[in-house]
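Same chain as my last thread, 543 residues:
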Amino acid sequence: MPGRARPSLHWSALAVVLLGLPVLAAAGDVEIDGAAGHRTISPLIYGVSYATQSQLSDLNAPLNRSGGDSATRYNWRLDARNAGKDWFFESLACSADIFDQHGDGFVGLSKAAGAEPMLTMPMIGWVAKLDEGRKPLAAFSIGKYGLQQKSDLEGFVDAGNGLRLDGTAITNNDPNDASMPDGPDDERKWVEHLVGKWGLAGKGGVTYYAMDNEPSFWHDIHRDVHPIGAHAREIADKVATYATMVKAIDPGARVLAPEEWGWTAYRYSGFDQQYAVQHGFDKAPDRTDQTQGMDYLPWLLSQWKTAGHPVDVVSVHFYPQGGVYKEDGGDQSAAGQLLRNRSTRDLWDPDYLDPTWIHDKVALIPRLRRWVDSYYYPGTPIAITEYNWGAEKTMNGATAQADALGIFGREGLDLATRWATPPTDSPTYLAMKLYRNYDGRKSGFGETSIATRTADPDRLAAFAALRAADGAMTVMVIDKDLSGDGQVDLKLRNFASRGTVEAYQLADGRLTHLPPAGFAESAFSAKVPAPSVTLFVLKGAGS
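reply #2:
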């Protein structure tokens, strides 16, 4: 109830033995069957991006991705990057800042924390260059191209945003102003360097190579060097070429592609996306002439199958729309929070019609699996290598993050890396920690997902798993209500009828170890605050 003070957690045994899952459940019922719905949860779904060594260790994170727009033009020889449209198209020397780490420094800090690094392989054909003394260079120099709408007044004042005062784009720039040509032979030497320094994949080296970053948007983010949207054929061929090169040097390496940005990019090439700004998607040229009416991503898969399996993990990016995610934190109004609660359905629910401009049934994880099995090699791992549900400093953001991780495990996603790592000890950070290091001793959620059901996952979501090391059942209960307290009734089937319960709860932005309790007669109940995330660790008597 809104405004009511949050009491301490209370426990009471229920005199109910669950004989079967009923057709309908009460609002607070969490029905769990230890013998049904078994699916292995990949530990690689708990990855992050640009985490520091201390964050990786604290989160017990298995993967650390270096990606984003700057990675597209990372120059490994100079240790330099180009920020593209994100920051005045400047080429900059990499620094100690974690977001400037794309090479050896990133590999080293990741390995030191026990995480596997994921590096981004530039494919655009250009990489950053620097001025004398490692000073920055501007792709749209005001001194060369004239006054522009905006410039980097707080840093490199000669760097403009590439738009004239009347708002028209500068189109006659020289791409050599701030970048230098780059190709497969140049990147081959980078992979050879990485293998020489760190060893082969699986023996201390780099295992994961992502094929660039969101190539269907190069014409916008990196228009100073690639002003024309990438054709479907360009990306199909480049991925095959660079992937083959990587694996010729290190056969154990794992290549991820296409690393596309979202819903439109699953269906249309960069060339078609650029065309559609003025003409719409009717008669989009690539879809008509190159992909023969097929969606872009499935067509890429069919081309890579013909090319002989260059891609090991089919990877995409996904961000909820409608203001749920924005770089400033996203919509945190009551309506925005309720939409955030619902929007995780985009990951799994075949009946959920996304209410934003997407206006379609996304069902991303089963869709990716279907595309892979239909157009590529069945069983090929699938990944979401960028995602973010916004509001990371709030409990609403934390419940969305916990929900997403639970969905990844239940639905069989193979790999995920969040963009980026939440601030240390923020609610969303602590929601991630609940899955991998809730007690500070690297204890985590179980590795075998089991059948779990609630009446309304938009208000109360739950995920359960079995943990082999100690026979425990771990249950993550996510109360998404915006305020008040509620009761959850956990009803167990095909597990011990009685035993002990250990609980860790994230509420009011704090992670708390709750007093130990017990369960009996295959059930127990607890009061939980809203919003909150509570991990219950159940162990049968004598285990």
